Amino acid sequence: MEPGLPSALKAGIDRELEGRRRADLAARTAATTAAYRAGRTSAAAIRSEDDALAYALARLPATYAAAATVFAEARRTAPGFAPATLLDAGSGPGGGSWAAKAAWPSLERIAWLDASAPFLALAGRLAGGALDATPTRGDLTAGGFPHADLVLASYALAEIAPDRQQALVLDLWAAADGVLALVEPGTPAGSARILAARDVLIGAGAAILAPCPHHAPCPLAAPAGRRPGVPGWCHFAVRLPRSRDHRLAKGADAPFEDEKFAYLLAARPDVAARPRSARVLARPRAGKPGIDLELCTGTGALDHRHVPRRDRPAHAAARRLNWGDAL
Ligand SMILES: C[S@@+](CC[C@H](N)C(=O)[O-])C[C@H]1O[C@@H](n2cnc3c(N)ncnc32)[C@H](O)[C@@H]1O
User: Fold this and answer.
1) Nearest atom in ligand 1 to 92's CA
2) For residue 296, what are the domain limits?
3) Measured from the CA of 36, which atom of ligand 1 is nearest?
């Protein structure tokens, strides 16, 4: 799946930008970014339609790309899973729903649940006729969600009080008839939220599809997991293109950016899954003698693998591997 936005969503954002002064949007983007960086939630950062649009310009491409990468992995690990319904919990402007629709053309109906009126209004305008989505303004911590084949909470757990996150994960799981996808920023804190959710979900009988190739404790969370070349916490990265307006809004020159994210795919045991295989935990290091891989293996242990150049088939296969891929 492409990490770039689908053309209908790009066109929707372009329509929203018509007649807006780019300098105003850049100022709005700087203000919302500063608010998020200072640890504020969307309730404080997104107060108006302009704030929501600034998010769509500056953050939606990255959260879309992260969700698209996660859904590509869901398709790979559970190729027979074809959801017809999606609950997008904490949907914001709907980028995750667009990524789900791109991954699964089978998707027919989407439920958006979000506390933010400006985000829900923008999501509706961006969707146009391309997504069949029903918006509901509500509180995620109230639970009682409608069931769906696929449930997504993308960059939303971070905004829930720590003492309510476990209950929310269980409520989301209760609503998931097939797969629950959680995506969080690729920070130590985001990864820790995913790890805590993983424990809760394994305890509730979920099968972890990805990224973990096992149900054992996370080896990166153990002090012995701190090794050179291995990130101190489980996270991944996706490179996404930046449009001209995206660059202007951010005051950035580079035509791309790297979004770091942490994620979890949990499935009902009756979702048919491919056998799990070791996961590449860091960018492969290619040198003259060969390629070095840092892996999380099916036994729940970390492994370092050197693939020598002289082993041509194995070396050619290793050259195609990226950070986050399964072997
Ligand atoms: C950072 S945004 C992420 C939006 C979108 N999922 C994405 O990936 O771009 C977090 C979203 O969660 C919503 N949210 C946070 N706390 C919430 C709550 N208690 N109830 C409902 N929505 C909430 C916010 O309004 C916001 O839309």
Assistant:
1) 27
2) 279-319
3) 1
| Domain annotation covers residue 325 | no
Stretch (H or E) spanning 280? strand 279-280
Q: How far apart are CA 63 and CA 60, in angstroms?
A: 5
Tell me, in angstroms, the distance from the centre of ligand 1 to residue 90's CA.
Answer: 4
User: Residue 217, CB half-sphere, CA atoms under 13 Å: how many?
Assistant: 7
Q: Round to whole Å and give the CA distance between 52 and 33.
A: 12
221 and 284, same domain (yes or no): no
Structure confidence by residue, pLDDT tens digits, 35-75: 988 889 988 889 899 999 999 998 999 999 999 999 999 99
Radius of gyration, CA atoms only, the chain: 20
Query: Same domain for 194 and 135?
Result: yes
CA 115 / ligand 1 centre spacing (Å): 7
207 φψ region: left (φ > 0), alpha (ψ -120 to 50), beta (else): beta
Residue ranges lining ligand 1, Cβ < 6 Å: 41-42, 60, 63, 90-92, 95-96, 114-116, 119, 139-141, 154-156, 159-160
